[in-house]
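Please, structure for the following, as tokens.
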Amino acid sequence: MLEAWDSLARNAVEPNPFLESWYLLPSLRALDPSESVHILKFTMDGIVCGIFPVKRETNYYGKPVRLIANWTHPNCFLASPLVAKGKEVQFWRALFEWADDQGRYGLFLHLSGIVLGGALDQALRHVLAEQGRTFGLVHREERALLRSDETPEAYFSASLSARKRKELRRQLARLSELGEVRFDRCQGAEGLKAWIEQFLELEAGGWKGKAGSALNARPETALIFQSGLVGAAAYGKLERLTLRLDGKPIAMLANFVAPPGMFSFKTAYDESYARFSPGVLLQCENLLVLDREDIAWSDSCAGEGHPMIDHIWRERRALGRYNVAIGGRLRRALFSRLLKAELGRNPTGISA
């Protein structure tokens, strides 16, 4: 099964490292000890053409509503299914057929983390229209994306004002006065254990540590981070970028490589050097990804309106959450009423 899963990931119409075996399985072990999550497997002619984790829920954003939803968690930054190229329509048809049979467990199907306008979204819309299903786009957000044919230097100049570029050069010069400044870019597993320990220590020493939201604040999230990086390295899908001062890391970034895309998984910086903007300096160095022939775009995985990355990366990626009718006539009628009420009072909801 793992071999077929990994083959699917290499040939998916839209890459999603967070649903690859090396990341999803450790996440389930850490966060789903009761094994309530089901991994749906879609096959055609004996070939695995789709992977999608789902869960039966009894709560919908604080309301006692039963539903079926794709499973995600705070450190899963994209929830769209892994689907083989050319099998998108067949996948959605099979998923809805399965969901209709599960109607007694939920009033509707909730699909989160779908890349709007992408191949999966277009196929989803096609099947929804084909089957005449009631649905709604109940939430939409945009996050920073890096996608350009420009050189890193040209992109940097176009993104930031001359004044800001001058300030960053000044900060780098001042930082260099304190010792040797070096940017390290690493792939593979060499030195990974020490790098992970340094990252967790760096993050815990900042505001996330004070707020209790650092990765090592909970054994589950620390395990996901460690297992995720080790797994990505084993599959040749990890890139680590580090800004060092006299060998000491003061800013760190872990990227997941999933051609033609790259995903910024986690970043941290030493807040005692905040006056030098180490995190911004590291992201400026990260623009060198534009020189990679195998990478067409990079997903920031950041929240909408991020105060730092939104000012450097100019492009945007739109993600949406869909609610879809399932089951028989009565269940669909009840869902239609619920959807109408939700879209009527939710300013971020968008009617289909």
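The chain has two domains: 2-143+318-351, 148-295. The longest helix spans residues 329-345.
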